[in-house]
């Protein structure tokens, strides 16, 4: 089925200095009144410059926790996240996050263009440059016709486009997306997937895209990292050797797409049943909590 | 046409009530209830002229200062307390205590502390009218959406910029509800503060008329108070419509779904 060089157990790492984003032994334990909850056990992987990587995992596998740790919104219990070799201790300037809840992430009291402009204004970008960045970003997501609308006057898909425009205008090196299309309908979703591929190609930004949708992860990604069920480790890290030019109909009907889909699906099923990759299993056995 | 319609809606009930009043006092007014014509005449005689400057305007000025003071202090203090969980836990019981005190009982105390002057009267208005603004601001700030907070954080919007661009706008609907209450409490306290050891102002004048059995004059003073209340309410609604345009639109969309 899947050629052996495609997938590796555990996350891929790059030689030192080559990675843009490095996650090293990341662990996150929530301390609650009902006891400790280990959301993420031990995650290690790298993202190279300009990569588009998707993270899939069964629900409750700590995907959002991982993303928030990478974004500097949550502190890790142990391990670290490095951006350009610098340890992430708070939200870095070179990162932008697109949240799943677009309706709550956009500020309803600001018009579309003002929402996109706010982070730039706050960063002290001069007015003329700001205007250009906002116009270009809205253009890139196909929303140049509604700058004066309020977000809540737009459809869900358009609202998420505004959120993407806001992230793009911020000119991040890394774009983190937390199940951004989970709440939009299937057709809008396909459009937004193509939009992300276009924006990624045009801007050369590095994208980490979290999703629970297997097809989406394969369609979008150059690489897919499959997470195990909680407590989370990397189940498998596979290269998606589909042609770089993706098309909703063509790509999805390729035999290779189906193969990859089968493979990822099987891995996730295994993950759900508690299967863990060899390395993690030994760690688990020798290091019982 | 639309304007004409809304004006007629505003005026319909007042006109009916005045007609009823005319009819009820046709057979000759009682000593305690003047006819509309008498009242109108007295109103103009009493308030258009010197009293406008000795009583009405000073009262309105104190009211405006008191209400603005209550809003500014309430919002500032509310932001400080609302954004800090510890501060909230410490201050909330104390705030409940002070809020429960009827402000008029503070008048003698404030007279001693501040003296018998305009400052005292403004202090009385602030001490009573600040609570709805303060408590609503705290509540509005506390209830901010965590996703909005994460958005601000991830885009490096912090400190004063965060207050200006995120916290304050997000709490505005709750704060405006507090300000609405603040206005009516302010008007009540303006009158009451002038009933104690005072020599001018609307409250003083009305009490003065009561004591000297100047019944139509007393009624006309009450009408002045009512008119001030109506004007305040119109100004407030005008501002609220502008400030909360986004919020009303958002609610409309949410209700339509």
TrEMBL record, chain A:
Source species, domain of life: Bacteria
InterPro entries xrefs: AAA+_ATPase, ABC_transporter-like_ATP-bd, ABC_transporter-like_CS, ABC_transporter_ATP-bind, P-loop_NTPase
Signal peptide: none
Keywords: ATP-binding, Nucleotide-binding, Transport
A Pfam entry, by short name: ABC_tran
Keyword Transport: yes
GO MF terms, alphabetically ordered: ATP binding; ATP hydrolysis activity
PANTHER family reported in the protein's UniProt record: ALIPHATIC SULFONATES IMPORT ATP-BINDING PROTEIN SSUB, TAURINE IMPORT ATP-BINDING PROTEIN-RELATED
Record-given protein name: ABC transporter
């Amino acid at each position: 089925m899947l050629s052996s060089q495609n997938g590796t157990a555990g996350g891929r790492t790059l030689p030192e200095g080559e990675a843009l984003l490095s996650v090293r032994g990341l662990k996150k334990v929530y301390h609650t009144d009902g006891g400790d909850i280990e959301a993420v056990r031990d995650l290690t992987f790298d993202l190279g410059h300009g990569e588009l990587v998707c993270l899939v995992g069964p629900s409750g596998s700590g995907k959002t926790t991982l993303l928030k740790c990478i974004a500097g919104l949550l502190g890790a219990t142990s391990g670290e996240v490095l951006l350009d070799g610098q340890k992430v201790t708070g939200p870095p300037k070179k990162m932008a996050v697109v949240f799943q809840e677009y309706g709550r992430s956009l500020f309803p009291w600001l018009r579309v263009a003002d929402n996109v402009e706010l982070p730039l204004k706050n960063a002290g970008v001069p007015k003329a440059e700001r205007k250009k960045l906002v116009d270009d970003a809205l253009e890139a997501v196909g929303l140049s016709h509604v700058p004066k609308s309020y977000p809540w006057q737009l459809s869900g898909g358009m609202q998420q486009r505004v959120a993407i425009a806001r992230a793009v205008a911020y000119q991040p090196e890394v774009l983190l997306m937390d199940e951004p299309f989970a709440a939009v309908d299937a057709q809008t979703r396909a459009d937004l997937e193509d939009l992300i591929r276009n924006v990624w190609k045009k801007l050369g930004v590095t994208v980490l895209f979290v999703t629970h949708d297997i097809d989406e992860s394969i369609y979008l990604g150059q690489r897919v990292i499959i997470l195990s069920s909680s407590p989370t480790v990397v189940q498998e890290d596979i290269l998606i050797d589909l042609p770089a030019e993706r098309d909703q109909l063509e790509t999805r009907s390729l035999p290779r797409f189906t193969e990859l889909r089968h493979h990822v699906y099987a891995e996730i099923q295994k993950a759900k049943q508690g299967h863990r990759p060899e390395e993690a299993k030994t760690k688990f056995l020798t290091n019982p909590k | 046409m639309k304007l004409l319609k809304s004006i007629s809606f505003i005026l319909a009930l007042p006109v009916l009530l005045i007609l009823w009043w005319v009819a009820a006092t046709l057979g000759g007014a009682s000593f305690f209830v003047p006819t509309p014509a008498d009242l109108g005449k007295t109103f103009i005689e009493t308030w258009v002229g010197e009293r406008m400057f000795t009583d009405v305007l000073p009262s309105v000025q104190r009211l405006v200062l008191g209400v603005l003071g209550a809003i500014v202090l309430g919002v500032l203090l509310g932001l400080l307390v609302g954004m800090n969980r510890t501060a909230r836990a410490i201050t909330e019981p104390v705030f409940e205590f002070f809020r429960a005190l009827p402000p008029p009982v503070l008048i003698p105390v404030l007279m001693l502390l501040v003296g018998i002057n305009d400052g005292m009267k403004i202090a009385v208005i602030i001490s009573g009218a600040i609570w709805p603004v303060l408590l609503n601001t705290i509540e509005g700030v506390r209830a901010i959406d965590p996703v909005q907070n994460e958005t601000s954080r991830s885009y490096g919007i912090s400190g004063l910029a965060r207050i200006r661009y995120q916290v304050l706008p997000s709490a505005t609907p709750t704060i405006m509800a507090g300000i609405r209450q603040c206005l009516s409490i302010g008007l009540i306290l303006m009158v009451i503060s002038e009933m104690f050891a005072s020599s001018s102002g609307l409250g003083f004048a009305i009490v003065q008329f009561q004591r000297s059995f100047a019944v139509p004059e007393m009624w006309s003073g009450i009408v002045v108070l009512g008119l001030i209340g109506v004007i305040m309410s119109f100004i407030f609604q005008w501002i609220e419509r502008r400030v909360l345009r986004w919020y009303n639109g958002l609610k409309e969309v949410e209700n339509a779904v």
